[in-house]
Design goal:
This protein has 139 residues and is an alpha+beta fold. 29% of the residues lie in helices and 44% in strands. It is built from two helices and nine strands; from the N terminus they run αββββββαβββ. Strands 1, 2, 3, 4, 5, 6, 7, 8 and 9 form a nine-stranded antiparallel β-sheet that branches.
């Protein structure tokens, strides 16, 4: 019985620590380096995601090319779900607005993410899209 209890404790500890580290690994500012739709890389406009808040109430804030935005999210392991988003609602040139629409589409429809080789990948398979970001250097 002690062996089973110790094993269960170990498994739950690992699960708890992995859920904690998922938010910690995302914290900070990430700059967009690639936007991919239907397997094609599209031109990128300067944009970013800044992960803030707490483990229980994570938030992404940033600039999407034209507008500033604020998005509440739910994290579970490598799963992500956007709960709500607000943006400043300004209108920009058509090219920038087209990029921003795609950026928001990925953000609102992302279902998973991973960090590989210092690149954050946001996946929105329902839209056949992904966005890739690199951690911004601290100034």
């Amino acid at each position: 019985m002690k062996k089973i209890s110790a094993t269960l404790f170990f498994v739950f500890s690992i699960l708890f620590l992995s859920s904690c580290s998922s938010f910690k690994s995302l914290e900070g500012n990430w700059e967009t380096v690639k936007l991919i739709k239907d397997g094609k890389e599209l031109p990128v406009i300067k944009s970013n995601m800044n992960f803030t808040g707490t483990k229980k109430e994570p938030v992404i804030k940033g600039h999407a090319g034209v507008n500033l935005y604020n998005c509440t999210i739910k994290l579970s392991g490598n799963s992500i779900k956007a709960l709500s988003m607000e943006n400043t609602g300004f209108r920009g040139v058509d090219e920038n607005m087209a990029f921003e629409d795609l950026f928001f589409t990925v953000l609102m429809n992302a279902s998973s993410y991973q960090i590989k080789n210092d690149i954050l990948y946001f996946y929105a398979p329902s839209e056949k899209m992904e966005i890739q970001l690199k951690r911004a250097e601290k100034k």
